[in-house]
Amino acid sequence: MSIASLVELYRKCGRPTLEEGSFCYSGKFPDVSSELAMVKSESTIDFDYINVDGEEILDDDLPESGRRVDFSILIPASSSNTFHESINSLIESDPKINRGHLPEDYYIINIDYYSKDKKKNEVLIKTEKICALIRGLSSLAHYHDEKDGLGSYRLVFVKPSTEEAGTAVLETKITEELVKNSADLDLSIIDAINSVEERDDPHHYAKINVFSVCLTDFIRSSASPRAAFDKLVYEWGNFLENYHKDVGVYISGFAFQKVKIEVANAESHIAGDFSKILGDITGKLLALPVSLIGVAVLAKYDSLFERLIIIAAMFMTSFVLFLLISNQKRHMERVIHAKDLVFSSLEGKRHRYPKDLSDSIEKMFSNISDTEKSLKRNLLVFSILSWVPFLFSIASLFYIYRLQLSDVVTNYWPC
Predict the structure, then answer these.
(1) Which of 23, 65, 95, 244 has the least CB density, counted as fewest CB within 10 Å?
(2) CA atoms of 378 and 387, how far apart (whole Å)
């Protein structure tokens, strides 16, 4: 049942005083005729009497014209969708308000406010926000129950497993004093946490836990669950400030922990690539001592042709080893390039990281740089060693034919 037409008639009559749940009017018929006809057409509204120009028409239709009208209307009282003397009487009339649910259709006499008015009353705006807060809190509470006889909630928030356990209990009792003295409540955080989209956030349940911890700490000094709820409403701004700080600490800690994992993975990956470069050629370098055995047997052959074949084999062995080592050098340059990209990304953000994380990054830089220098040095040494078999074979050949070479030199360049 809508009371819109009744409110319009009541206002048209000059908002007379209600006595025993009804109001009376005596005045010009044309001033209220259309509104009176609308109310009379509704079967749910009772009149004590209606007189137009002294004629009783309680059970008849209103005349089209008249000069004076007298009537008395009984205000419906079967639900909270009716007239209320004040905000307090509205709250007391419906226990569901303490659980965050205002009636849809009501009129408050002392402030001349109808719930369907386009211009909202400031006090009722606060009331609606407190109701929205209660609904939001009830969705976040670990459990809640209705307090017998009062219709209010007892919302229980359990502090997650921490060094100091605890619970927060809120008794959601709305009073006129609470409404009038409450600040403007910003419920964006409650709405965001309870939104369907927020549930896809990997930090969703963590934020709920942070909310419970923050709430428990915030109302710890309250004398009772009702006082705790009042404190939360009165100091909602301070609570939000604390919550934002706690969430910021959590998100930062999560981000820093993620960076730590990334740093550890980067160090392990780069070090592994450097180690793989060296490991891939370690087995092939065993050809060096084997090749030196070929140099040792060079003197056992009498034929120059056979000796040249051995030297050619030494050259091929040294050349292949040199190519393999050169290929590993190019691989090393690619790894160094990737390392520089990772380092530059981390270096640009180091000033924002905690000291322990910054120190870990610095240590990683130092370790990787030492490994890089050592690898470069080793590859240079291996490049030189790769030519040792060939150079030794050439030196051995010159040694074997030293007398012949001496005669040749003497013949061509006599003293």
Answers:
(1) 65
(2) 15
**Start-end of H helices in 236-303:** 236-282, 287-296
Q: What are phi and psi of 198, to 5 degrees?
A: -65, -25
**22 phi/psi in degrees, rounded to 5:** -145, 165
In angstroms, rounded to a whole number, what is the distance separating the alpha carbons of residues 338 and 270? 8
In this predicted model, what pLDDT tens digit does every residue of 343-379 receive, in sequence order? 776 666 666 566 666 777 778 778 878 888 888 888 8
- List Cβ neighbours of 148 (8 Å cut-off, separation of 6 or more): none
Query: Own/partner pairs for 253-261, CB < 8 Å, 24+ apart?
Result: 254/203, 254/206, 256/353, 256/354, 256/357, 259/346, 259/349, 259/353, 259/357, 260/357, 260/360
Alpha helices in 141-235 (DSSP H): 176-181, 188-194, 204-218, 225-234
Bridge partners (DSSP) of residue 58 are none
**H or E element that contains 12:** helix 4-12
Q: Which DSSP string corresponds to 105-162? A: S-EETTTTEETT-SSPPHHHHHHHHHHHHHHHHHHHSSEEEEPTTT--EEEEEEPPSS
Pairwise CA distance, residues 122 & 116, whole Å? 14
Beta-carbon contacts of residue 155 (< 8 Å; ≥ 6 apart): 137, 138, 141, 144, 169, 170, 172
Say if pTM beats, i.e. exceeds, 0.85.
Answer: no
CB contact at 8 A, 179 and 130: yes
| Structure-block tokens of residue 235 | 């100091």
- Rounded to 5 degrees, φ, ψ at 373 are -60, -45
On average, the pLDDT of the chain sits at: 80
Token duo for residue 360: 């870990």
pLDDT 10s digits, 87-125: 888 888 888 888 888 888 899 998 899 988 888 888 888
- Taking the CA of residue 143 as centre, how many other CA atoms within 13 Å lie in the half-sphere pointing to its CB? 1
3-state secondary structure of 203: coil
Q: What is the DSSP string of 44-77?
A: T-EEEEEEETTEE-TTSPPPS--SEEEEEEEPP-
